[in-house]
Prior knowledge:
two-stranded antiparallel ribbon, alpha+beta, 4 helices, 4 strands
Amino acid sequence: MPSLPPSICSCGRIVAARTRCACKALADRERKARFDQRRPSARARGYDATWQKARAEFLTHNPTCRFCGKPAIVVDHVKPHKGDQRLFWLKSNWQALCTPCHSSVKQSRERR
């Protein structure tokens, strides 16, 4: 099976197939840092002691990941609440996930 040829980045560097140019990786880091500076703290977004208690109770009743069946660690909002406190506390909008599924499967589904 033939391999993919390298590509040329907009900065002019030759980049191996299926890799990112260093300039693009740097731009991504800078963009994410700007976003994090504007983002409210976890506490300001509602993830306080009350949430930790509700989360622990939910995980007691839902101990396995909804996607893969491994032990769940994260309580995720099925539909992103985006600051809506009614949706934030709606338990039917919660799902138990393991960290790998929350960090990859769920995030890729939200991007679609």
